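Predict the 3D structure for this chain.
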Amino acid sequence: MKPVIFTTKILKSFLQDHKIATMLELKNALGTDVDMTVFRKLRELSYRTSYTHRGKYYTMDEIAGFDNQGLWFNRSVGFSVYGTLVNTAKSFIEKSESGLSAAELKDILNVEVKESLLRLSRKEQLHREKISGLYVYFSPETFTRKKQVLLRRGREAEPGFSLENLGSDLLAHELKAAIIIFFSTLDEKQRRLYAGMESLKLGYGGDSKIAELLTIDSHTVAKGRQELLNQDFEVERVRKKGGGRTSVKKKRRK
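Done. Predicted structure below.
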């Protein structure tokens, strides 16, 4: 009696016809009762599992037509370029402009995400903060989180946001976010001097306020401020290596 041969071609043809399928449907198509037989063939096809329906559905990369957010839906079943629901939720939070609440993310992913977000928060893979009575999730990375939190608070302060009613509070939050982003691009000495300059603008108590905003030691801010006041620095050394005009080699007279 000849052994039964399970071909990948059968599985590929079935998925091309149906777009998505459950494990039971794939086993029936392949003519086997063994899950591992199906998995071996799926690995040859570069497959994906759904992040909705507890990963119950399967498809192939070549079938999934992901949108600009990295999502694809077929018959209300969702697939993501980020893989699982947990990975997808984490990626969306980290890439968001001002963080996301569980309800906001649910509207995007079309699936309940509260438990996944709580697990990520407990593992410190996401930052959770209560703003205006609502728990919002943010990136765990310091500079990104500060920018997200500032923009979220500004948005909450101005719920009727438009160009006509853009309030000074929101402008202040956006300015702080811009400062954080700019600060992250500087080297160590440039950061110290910039922090000192911002402290001088604020006046009394500026060192501690800037230190809190930029997540640095207040003594670092004070040192930068003092260096500026004493002009205790060399301009050329503050500039990054390679900055400014390209050096020109002078020709000597013969």
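The first helix runs from residue 8 to 18.
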